[in-house]
Design brief:
The chain has about 425 residues and is an alpha+beta fold. It contains twelve helices and 23 strands. The chain has helices at about 15-20, 55-65, 75-80, 80-85, 100-110, 110-120, 135-145, 170-180, 245-265, 300-305, 310-320, 395-410; strands spanning about 5-10, 30-35, 45, 70, 95-100, 125-130, 150-155, 160-165, 190-195, 200-205, 210-215, 220, 225, 230, 235-240, 270-285, 285-295, 335-345, 365-370, 370-375, 380, 385-395, 415. It is globular. The structure holds adenosine monophosphate and glycine. Adenosine monophosphate (AMP) binds near residues 162 and 193.
């Protein structure tokens, strides 16, 4: 059996969950996480490397005989880490799980993603892309459509680049402000979209470019406030499975969205070996794509990994060797939930460096650290807005949630905050 020394890039709850799952594989020789966090060292060795410093990653990979790189977050993919490895004689034999730079444009450019969907007849909101020279067309699009108006920065904007505006006058002034640099260079092009009304879910697939496997479906809760109110965050919790994503809905997702996406990438000779994240909205029983991401979701990964009842590393080996069709993916039929414990003030400004206590008393949940660090004397400290994802299994959604909430009571730090209503809108 071939063994793998893996370098996993990233530092959030998603990477903790990936590390937890990879660490269970009999095919794992050694796991490095760069840069990791205060919890990932339970599963491997943290390495102080930036996921965007490709030359430093190259040196590390060679010095430590790394033979697989798993990319957690989108930035290195959009910056072209796949192509960097493919073009370097010393790295060519080290597979990177993730798309090529061109494939990563599905997330790196909303305009690219919308045009791709149009070419392959994949259901998504009607759109128009504009830049400073075509702003008048943008105004006309706004006038032609009903409120609310959806305005999206074309490029990566750390999840902040989408505005939903209730009236036409304001939409026009926001369009101008975006093109004038509201989100820096990422909004020098803006995608205007028809507003779709429905409930959202996250569908993930692994693909080797030819075949794909559908991972468990999840729903995340993006807003900071209970009842889905207040500003967007990276995600406050997640649930899997998703009651409305039943067999009939998922059949439509597979036929109308997943197959045309995987086949479309292949037809266009876009190299893609990794995760595809379909951000979907259910409009009267029909799925539409809200966005693509080229990585797993966070905090969805903190429930999806619990429900994969097969060796993740075996699946990833299938991805990088083009043999995914021969691999087995079993799904755990239990529910999985995660509740994110965050720092008071998040997603605005918040304190860091608060001592976290009580994690040793947690029983019956899995803690995926997100924004934590270890001090020199071994104390666990907060180091981010999203601090720890408390993940649990249950025979029902409520049973799993109950475990997560009960364990959150045992964890403490100054400013501890969380949503008590994760899963409220699902059966
Ligand atoms: P995105 O970054 O494209 O996922 O957009 C962020 C959020 O804005 C999504 O999760 C949706 O809640 C919302 N959104 C984006 N596009 C639309 C749309 N066309 N209609 C309704 N809501 C949308
Ligand atoms: N939870 C949404 C995301 O990872 O983008």
């Amino acid at each position: 059996m071939k063994k793998y020394t893996i370098l996993l890039l990233g530092s959030g709850g998603r990477e903790s969950a990936l590390a937890w799952k990879l660490a269970q594989s009999p095919k794992l020789e050694k796991l490095f996480i760069a840069p990791g966090n205060g919890g990932t060292m339970q599963y491997g060795t943290n390495v102080a490397l930036s996921p965007l410093d490709f030359p430093a990653i190259k040196d590390f990979v060679i010095a430590n005989s790394v033979n697989m790189v798993v990319v957690g977050n989108e930035d290195p993919l959009v910056a072209g880490i796949y192509d960097y490895f493919a073009a370097d004689a010393a790295l060519q034999n080290v597979p990177v799980v993730g798309p090529s730079k061109e494939g990563a444009m599905l997330e790196g450019s909303k305009d690219f993603a919308k045009e791709f969907m149009k070419r392959h007849s994949i259901p998504t909101a009607e759109h128009l892309s504009v830049d400073a020279s075509t702003i008048d067309d943008g105004y006309a699009f706004i006038e032609k459509h009903q409120p609310p108006y959806v305005l999206k920065a074309d490029g990566l904007a750390a999840g902040k680049g989408v505005l939903i505006v209730p009236d036409a006058q304001e939409a026009k002034s926001q369009l101008r402000a975006m093109l004038d640099g509201m989100f820096g260079a990422s909004s020098s092009k803006v995608v205007l979209e028809q507003f779709l009304s429905g409930i959202e879910c996250s569908v993930f697939v692994l693909t080797d470019g030819d075949n794909y496997k559908i991972l468990p479906v999840a729903k995340d809760y993006k807003r900071i406030g209970e009842g889905d109110t207040g500003p967007n965050t990276g995600g406050m919790g997640a649930v899997s499975p998703v009651s409305f994503a039943d067999e009939c809905f998922m059949h439509k997702v597979e036929e109308r969205i997943i197959k045309p996406t995987v086949n479309g990438l292949k037809q266009e000779n876009i190299t893609y070996r990794g995760f595809i994240f379909f951000g979907l909205i259910n409009v009267g029983g029909d799925p539409f794509v809200i966005e693509y991401n080229v990585r797993m979701g966070d905090p969805e990964t903190e429930v999806v990994m619990l429900r994969i009842d097969s060796d993740l590393l075996d699946l990833l080996e299938g991805v990088v060797t083009g043999t995914l069709a021969d691999r087995v993916l079993n799904i755990d039929q239990r529910y999985a939930t995660t509740v994110m414990v965050v720092s008071n003030g998040y997603p605005g400004s918040y304190a860091k460096g608060k001592v976290i206590t009580g994690t040793e008393h947690v029983d019956g949940s899995i803690l995926f650290h997100a924004g934590t660090s270890k001090s020199d004397d071994g104390a666990l400290l907060t180091s981010g807005g999203r601090v720890i994802a408390v993940s649990s299994y249950g025979a029902t959604k409520d049973e799993a949630l109950h475990k997560s909430f009960a364990n959150i009571e045992k964890i403490d730090f100054e400013g501890k905050t969380y949503r008590r209503d994760i899963g409220f809108d699902l059966k």
